[in-house]
């Protein structure tokens, strides 16, 4: 027997590897999207959010009043356009979680709320810390 003419086609294996890479990249939840500089207010009596809705959009407002989604900072006009586009794409029924820094001005948080209500979003929640690690 001769080994001449025996070849192994690697194309299907490479295709499978790329499909797996795409699957894992798309399904991994990126925790790095949350801004670590935002200090949340204490909310010891509020409900604990369990079973987070996959449609939930997390909007952050830092202490300077800067609005960001997935660490992408934007002005109010861009934020309004993004919210309108999302409403047009998925409807009015998706929740918004506002992570406002405890040092942010109420007026800056209110801008986000006004834009959300202006485009017809009514499911708005606020993130707070139930208990700080130092209090445990």
Task: Give a short overview.
This protein is α/β, with parallel strands linked by helices and 136 residues long.
What does this protein look like?
This protein has 136 residues and is α/β, with parallel strands linked by helices. Helix content is 33%, strand content 14%. The protein has a single domain, classed as Nucleotidyltransferase, domain 5. The protein has a 5-stranded mixed β-sheet.
Keywords for this structure?
5-stranded mixed beta sheet, elongated, 5 strands, alpha/beta
The name of the CATH topology is Nucleotidyltransferase, domain 5
Rounded mean pLDDT score: 83
Gross CATH architecture = 2-Layer Sandwich
Shape assignment: elongated
What gyration radius follows from the Cα positions, in whole Å? 22 Å
CATH class: Alpha Beta
Order of secondary-structure elements:
HEEEHEHE
What is the tally of beta strands?
5
Give the DSSP E fraction (strand runs of 2 or more residues).
5-15%
Helix and strand content put the structural class at: alpha/beta
The number of helical elements comes to: 3
Specify the helix fraction band.
25-40%
Most strands sheet = 5 strands, mixed
List the domain count as a whole number: 1
Span of the ends, CA to CA: 74 Å
List unreliable stretches of 5+ residues.
none
